[in-house]
Amino acid sequence: MGKESKYVSKQPDENGIIHWTDEENAIWHDLVERQLKCIPGKACDEYMKGLELLDLPKDRLPQLHEINAVLERETGWQVAAVPALIPFDEFFRLLANKQFPVATFIRTREEFDYLQEPDIFHEIFGHCPLLTNPAFAHFTHQYGKLGYAASPKERVYLARLYWFTVEFGLMKTAQGLRIYGGGILSSPAETEYAVNSDKPERKPLKALDALRTPYRIDIIQPIYYTIESVDELYEISDMDIMALVQEAMELGLFEPKFPPKPKTDVA
């Protein structure tokens, strides 16, 4: 993750407490309240149960030890404070050790609706509820172990599987389409679009297909992959994913379903 962030993560004090400003707490409150109005009937049941277990405060940012107490009890996971952007090596190392990286900064009002880099709202509100689920937690742990041992080229392929599951995954349930990807669940626009729009393509998840599908981080997604239940992630994580990565490399990528990113002049 070579680019630099304009955001700086806050350092916990000697007691592990992060001191947030009133404005940062107000931004958290507004983000949570807005998204809580969007997700009923759209987020999957496992996510909603996890949200209930975490019992996130609305009037202030949660402290990491509060999240850790719940995750440790439910699945043996923890969150770990990290700088705004971390190298892939560190990202995979943390996941392999059942630690979910959380950048300890929150977006500004100017980037309230969309932020390219993951902030604490995205990580905690978007991802942590599902880390209380054993199947999702197992998938994320296995993914981290594979990624930590992988070559840089293999990691680029693995990143696509993560993108189309953990970040932008959908679930087909008896009640209809539901969201489990944290990238969707932390975005009101994409929450609505992913479930209710007829514009995106939605296909049943095949790990090999996901590994071969290009994506862009700065647009609403043109394609989503669906699973039937969260247990499907458990099954995928026990496949020989690295053999699929090799196969994906040999077959090559699918044609992108989006225009190329506009080039910017960088000095």
UniProtKB/TrEMBL annotation:
Highest taxon of source: Bacteria
UniProt-listed GO biological process terms: L-phenylalanine catabolic process
Domain Biopterin-dependent aromatic amino acid hydroxylase family profile, chain residue ranges per copy: 1-267
Cofactor: Fe(2+)
Pathway: Amino-acid degradation; L-phenylalanine degradation; acetoacetate and fumarate from L-phenylalanine: step 1/6
Coiled-coil region: none
Residue stretches spanning the membrane: none
Reactions catalysed according to its record: (6R)-L-erythro-5,6,7,8-tetrahydrobiopterin + L-phenylalanine + O2 = (4aS,6R)-4a-hydroxy-L-erythro-5,6,7,8-tetrahydrobiopterin + L-tyrosine
GO terms, molecular function: iron ion binding; phenylalanine 4-monooxygenase activity
Keyword tags: Iron, Metal-binding, Monooxygenase, Oxidoreductase, Phenylalanine catabolism
EC number: 1.14.16.1
PROSITE patterns tied to this protein: BH4_AAA_HYDROXYL_1 (PS00367), BH4_AAA_HYDROXYL_2 (PS51410)
Binding, Fe cation: 122, 127, 167
Iron recorded as keyword: yes
Similarity field: Belongs to the biopterin-dependent aromatic amino acid hydroxylase family.
Record's protein name: Phenylalanine-4-hydroxylase
Organism: Idiomarina aquatica
